[in-house]
Amino acid sequence: MNNMRPLSGDPSESQIASRMTALAACVGLALAVGAAQAQRVTAAPAASEPSPGALEEIVVTAEYRSEKLQQTPLAITALTAAALADRNITSLVDVSNAAPNVTMFEANAAFGKTNAAFIRGIGQGDFNFASAEPGVGIYIDDVYFSTTFGSMFDLLDLNQVEVLRGPQGTLFGKNSIGGAIRMISKKPQGDDTGYIEVTGGNFSRREVRAAFDVALIKDVLMLRVSGMSKQRDGYVDRLDYACAHPATAGTLPVQQIGQGNCSIGKEGGVDVKGARAQLRWVPSSAFEDNLTADVYDDSSEAAAEVMLVANPALAPALAGFNASTLVPKYGIPYDSRFVTAGTYTTYSTFFDPNTGTAYPAVNTVHSWGVSNVADWTIVDNVHLKSITSQREYWGDFSDDQDNSPMGVAWAYNLLDHRQFTQELQLTGKAFDDKLDWATGLFYFHGYSLNRGHINLNFLAGFFPPGPPFFGQPVLNFNQNDPAKTEDKAAFAQTTYAFTDQLHLTTGVRFTKENKSYTFNHYNPLIAIPNPALDLRNVGKSTSYSHVDWKVGLDYQWTPDFMTYVSATTGFRGGGFNPRPFTNLQLTSFKPEKTTSFEIGEKSEFFDHKVRANAALYFSQYRQVVITSQKVDATGAPFTAPQNVGSADIKGFELELEANPVAGLQLSATVGLTDFKWKSLGTSVGCQDLGAGADPGANCISGNPGYGDISPGISKWKGNVGAQYEMPVGADSTLTPRVDFSAQTKRFNNNWNNYAPAGGPVAVTPGLGLLSARLTWENKVHAWSVAAFGTNLTNRYFYQSFLDLRAFGEGQMSAQPAEPREWGITFRKNFQ
Description:
The protein is mainly beta. The protein has five helices and 46 strands. Helix content is 7%, strand content 52%. The protein has a 22-stranded antiparallel β-barrel. It has a five-stranded mixed sheet with strand order 3-9-10-7-8. The longest helix has 27 residues, at 13-39. It is globular and about 85 Å long.
């Protein structure tokens, strides 16, 4: 058993904050120098040619037109294909290490392949289709990906990733309330280029990535095909408890016999394959069509999980299940003997001995999609773009919730989703090119189905057999819950140049959305005695409309220094209670809203060898949704999302890049997200009663107090990176790179310090992670070999939690992050 513990040399939260403050001071000094240089320039002369060693000029399309990153009045982090490779970023969640105030991590094991993505303190980590609208919009080649489930993307053959921070409600629409992430693939060029990349490493890591680009008709019809395969063994061992601990196993049967060890499997293993084909047709200079098809097959094993709390004293139902069932059957109760916190081990078996049910130890996503993007220049300076897409994905994942062989509680989910989107964008220029304008229509239709089986054996005897629960039917049930969403929107945005330097941007978007959800839970073995309380086919619907707007002003002081100020809005769609026990608990909630004010600057100086971008923001976050305790019509308690109040979020971001001398590249970011609850009304947590709660406040266990921050947020977050390209002989280079990312603590619960009976708090601690890469490449860029390592200090920490102590289950599990990993990548480019 591996007893890894946090290293004593790891920085504390105060040390991290002080280091980030020092970094911010250094960047601020650089900005002051740049501003001083800008003040010496009284006019805006034409931009000069880039000097040797200048930073790469990046072009973005965040405002539906191609423009330089440094002249786009938005807070954007843009990572080119080269930057992704240099940082060894191969998955979307890793992008968060290179962008300030952006957090992404895999949600807990009970939520499957769900990316918990947060930007500036707003995001989502649930998977359930009834409620889990993302707070960060994710786009793949301009096509919206509408769910948090399935968004743990591998980055395959991308040209660029753009992270837009702050609400993007006018051009990108609903669920971009925190921001938007755009993944942009490499377009076919028909130049007979390509590459193949092979990686091996610890945990039996095997990866292959490849692409080729060919002209079917020169300069008219071009094809690019790319593919990848990735396998890696799990890093959490599943042990047979009776084999590993016979003295405390009672009469639990030994499952592993004759193998020489007590291992019965692993968790956290990866098995992913994917491919994409792009056909680009350019029949004339006025028309271009891009047809893309992709498939993705993730057949990974169950997510990594360990048990932190197993305490029957916190759960009367669990104590009763011990006394009535487990102790008579096995001679031992379910308790802290199954806790494996601080290790990479678990006692999960994915078998329920109480019902004789085996369920698969899987964590999968399978998908396919087709999209067509047609771009037509109708007349000079007027372009029509049509984006049509159909996408389907499905997957299954299971969670042995008690992390033991005793079958206390478990879940097996099967999710299906399909969506159709159509967007029309009309863009152009007017008034002697002083006005840039964009307008369009958007349509979305989505159908989702949540199937599978939920079994809470330990609660079977806790509820009486009569109404409203009837005992077993609601606690050991199949689910077959469909949900539908239809979204229609119209938008317009303009940018007017009063002078060559002063620009005004205004925008508006109208959205109309209809949603429905059907609650369909049943146990086919038990008849429901009262048809009026039938748990099947109970539907609920909701609809709403919303208007988003934007206004911004920017001034280009010099070709290398721009400032801007803006006010923008955004909203996240409403939904339904995702986990009701009865039809009486099927409730709905309203959309969340935000209004954000931002001031920023973008600058380059020292002959374009230093780039510094900064932003200050203040957001008014309203109708905030949290999962809170409620009471249904019969007086029975349950938990459900509800709009509880409002909060203010303020902060700043700094991004710095520099090429101070030939071959040396430096980068640094730092961000502050300061979340403050402003009003919780009568939904305030018990810890705040008598301490400034609003009049008439109720004591709601588990709700936040005014001193708490929303889950998923690190107040401070930053990173630094450095690489130096050195000549080796006459025909090759050697480039070492080091990256260090750091964050302050991130809470999992609304009540941040919830710790009943003195137990642990569900918090990812403040920490710093070190990674490195050493690359050899020949000068013609045909061959390269790179050795890399992540989490080099082997820091043990939990990236997500499933805390069920407040819900009467006496348990808390967590997903430990990957330990130290290393690998070697061989790449051959065909030019």
